Amino acid sequence: MADPTKPNLILASASKSRRIMLRNARIPCLFEAANIDEAAIKNHMIKVGSSPEKISEKLAQEKAVFVSKNHPNDIILGADQLLFCEGRLFDKPKDKAEAKAHLQFFRGKSHILHTSYALVRQNALLICETYSPCLTMRNFSDDFLDKYLDQSGDKILNSVGCYLLEDRGPQLFSEINGDYFTILGLPLLNVMEKLRKLNILDI
Question: Residues 128-153: pLDDT tens digits?
Answer without folding.
Answer: 999 999 999 999 999 999 999 999 98
